[in-house]
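Need the bound structure for S-adenosylmethionine, inputs here:
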Amino acid sequence: MHDLRVSVIDACNFRCGYCMPAENQYRFLRSHELLTVDEITRLVRLFVSLGVRKIRLTGGEPLLRKELPDIIRSLNRIDGIEDVALSTNGHHLAELAADLKAAGLQRITVSMDDLDEEGFAELSGVRADLNRVLTGVEEAVRVGLRPVKVNVVIRRGINEHAVLDLVNFARGEGYVVRFIEYMDVGTLNAWGMKDIVPSKEILATIQTRYELAPADPNYFGEVASRYLFSDGTGEIGFISSVTQPFCSQCTRARLSAYGSLYTCLFASEGVDLRGLLRHDASDEKILKTILDTWAARTDRYSEERAEMTSEEREKHKVEMYSIGG
Ligand code: SAM
Ligand code: SF4
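Answer from helper R.:
Posting the output first, comments after.
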């Protein structure tokens, strides 16, 4: 266990079709249901004592959590953390980037699936304003939140046209694009194999324009396969959890906004750590619960997906916005 994803809120102001389709009604957690800053800090400290070195704050949309700078500041005081990063839709970045940097945030990943204003709003909901996101990312770079990564999900027949635009844009700005295969995470997005565009196909599209060379992972458990542009201007990555699952190398635990521990993005059930915290459990008791959960994990959903029936795939799965991507 090396990485911990901490969802700081389940609510979001966007409605990306693959995550929170706009036609659904959502009931978000009330503030007393969310882990507090102190609770997040205590749990993260315990995870770090077990070997976690990288923390990613996510959601829902983490910039909607008012105490986000406090959370970052507090996590930065924990010895042993090497990296605190943030995944965001970027909508509130322009106003918040400087505070986040001052609180100790190192870098950001911004999600962006199209570079056409109308297309962007169609993909991510009526409040999704591309120019606002772009301004936010510029401000993040200005205050030193670097390197910027851009997460892109390409869906068949929806935004395949955006691949080269996004690559050109990111190369020009010095950002690293990560193409994430569209996953059957949660239960709301009506995913089908026919909707995904395999990484290999996206790579082939990019190779029509650029020469690329495969690169080694930066560390064991890195989920993206990396490629470097042969002219030396940057890199791109592919997270191919559908066509090339990497369950056997997974070093990632997830803490939901309501304080449950999940050992897989596709899990149905988490283990309630918030209950332990709120019933005055000792550090030893919480550590034992985390260790027992991690040791007992058998999750390899992505490796088993191909053999599953659609009924098996449709069993209850936790939604991406409550445990973070
Ligand atoms: N709201 C923030 C954002 O959009 O970056 C953080 C949370 S979001 C759940 C984290 C990442 O999950 C985003 O990059 C998003 O594109 C990705 N994601 C959500 N649903 C997905 C799906 N069904 N398949 C692949 N990636 C997905
Ligand atoms: Fe919100 Fe991120 Fe999900 Fe889009 S992917 S709906 S921005 S949580």
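Comments: The chain has a mean pLDDT of 92. Residues 12, 18-19, 58-59, 61, 87-89, 111, 151, 153, 180, 182-183, 185, 189, 320-321, 324-325 surround S-adenosylmethionine (ligand 1) (CB under 6 Å).
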